[in-house]
Amino acid sequence: MNLKDNIQSVAFFPLHLIIWLYTLLTFIPWYLITGARKKQAVARRVKARSMSGLAEGPYRSVDCFGSLATIDFPGKDTLDKLFELAVQRFGTADCLGTRELLSEENEVQPNGKIFKKLILGQYKWLSYQEVDVAAKHLGSGLAALGQKPRNTIAIFCETRAEWMISAQACFRHNFPLVTLYATLGEDAVAYGLNECGVTHLITSVELLETRLKNVLSGIRNLKHIIYVDPKRSSLRGYPEGLRIHSMHEVQELGAKPENLNAEAQRPSPSDLAVVMYTSGSTDKPKGVLMMHSNLIAGMAGQCARIPGLGPKDTYIGYLPLAHVLEMTAEISCVTYGCRIGYSSPQTLSDQSTKIKKGSKGDCSVLKPTLMAAVPEMVHIVTGSHPCVCLHGPPPPPPQSTTGFYSQEIMDRIYKNVMSKVQEMGYLRRTLFQLGYDYKLAQVKKGYDAPLCNLLLFKKVRALLGGNVRMMLSGGAPLSSATQRFMNVCFCCPVGQGYGLTETCGAGTITEVADYSTGRVGAPLVCCEIKLRDLADGSYTTKDQPNPRGEILIGGPNVTVGYYRSDGDINKDFFVDEDGQRWFCTGDVGEIHPDGCLQIVDRKKDLVKLQAGEYVSLGKVESALKSCSLIDNICVYANSDQNYVISFVVANKKKLMDLASDKGIQGSWEEICNHPAIETAVLTEIREVAKSSKRFEIPVKVRLSSEPWTPETGLVTDAYKLKRKELKNHYLHDIERMYGRK
Fold it and tell me: What keywords is this UniProt entry annotated with (predicted)?
């Protein structure tokens, strides 16, 4: 959304004069005090260079050009050693925090549905020493229950302090940890547990009762289940021979002298640390094998790009710990003395689905300084945000059984705040827009606007607690408009990162001083990147003005492959003549002159139309998600046709308002199927995509009245589109829209 275009006709000379005088009086002292000139020089510097001098690379960070980083702290080459160092350095400091549950209430919605609402207290903290003792006792207890070193143990649990305690216990005793998304379906969980042959499983009572109970009889080697809930549960109806314990019971067992004093077999750098199952966008989930050395190297690279990381920081943990970004972020925070306060998508903000109206969400209580977001996977409940002069009661947010929305957190905040701005009165809207445009212009130059921060954006920033100094977005490119919005309204840098499970989440991260948008930064000091021409010639390293091609990542952070998989599935890994391991990502990138990477496409998303034009499905989808009528979209193209079509999960509030304006009545499903509404959505899509090439703009649309969730099988547990399943689901509509029926 271009705010400036909306106000070009506004004659507001006195305000412009005030802003001009403010700039004149504050710019010079601010420029000198904050070192803006130095920051600009850092932003403009060359950040990575080609080792070979050739356009294809490989490219390395100039900060580690001679050799790649493999370790952050000398001698600390395994994850258990990192945690021991943290306990020595930060012993009595807060480490892991959980909010106290005061009460639960059932709230009846106007439609008759009942939602559970929570009233939460303050955060209760465990110190580093207390976490160390808890992990030590748990590890000894697991060993007493028969868990053997180098034998896998699974964790299928929500993000919480007990997850990290369990992980540290496993690292200490050399129990390779198998991680599974808490949103995985029954069949996928059973597949992962059987493939790894685990005998011990750590989970929660809720997941045990709702996701595991029906498939336990088919999990062949499982002997022990440990549930993390603090209260003892009387669980019945489970297979004979399967023993169920509380974590507290296992810790008590491990605290007995004969078990606690038993010598643990500590891991070596080449030992397996984690088997992390991906979400499986094209087939069954794959278990990525991560050695201790892989994770140590990856985190060394990540931490080098986060300035000032230390005991003064508070990180809010709410993304799935089974995702590589969250797991490595939390382990890094613990290593550097940050405290981690745990949250969930349903309790993150004051407006979240499980927070009782009038109560505080986790961000408001914790006031984090650092947080992460993963596109297409997370949600923040944003039916309304009281950001600036907002009025009227917020509409109830949509619900899902998982608590996740298939929309990136930043994009959702951006669309909702901008929507509320448009609902303001003329004067308030104009003041906000002028202030926004003024600060936006300053941010694009690498400057700031402290007065605007104080007067206009304080309430927006308070949505995330008011103290966030840096946000990291990873998993998919963030749109330039959304990144600028976060820079302006949340008054902090938004770093973009690029990495994969197969590279331990490490690849690139933008520098804090880099105020460009649309890029994911230069290679981290632990790895290097090179480009490979695509066979069809759609992207090559000879492209102008910058080389483009498939992204290959090499370095000590690249994992060893997939668990018990044949050579065909491991074909994307290879070792070069120098013994360095590489992973072929399948993503298409462009290297800028300063060595920074931009993600421009995905190999699997490229479709050649009948007339020979290439359409990037993901690129079109990313552009259209800024449309206010769209919550999620899948673009489809067929090589024997000359146009593309789309399937859309519509924004219910916006679409209902549109139907009301057009005098169209009916149920939600009837409105989604109404031809006039489809036409209106297509008109909006064409307006949003007017800068795209003609053949990229969908000419037909099918609106879905139901959201796409992992339960429907149309998206992965990380909320990435399952194109094959979506095609089969909408096959009748595809035939209809292409005129075959």
Answer: Fatty acid metabolism, Ligase, Lipid metabolism, Membrane, Transmembrane, Transmembrane helix
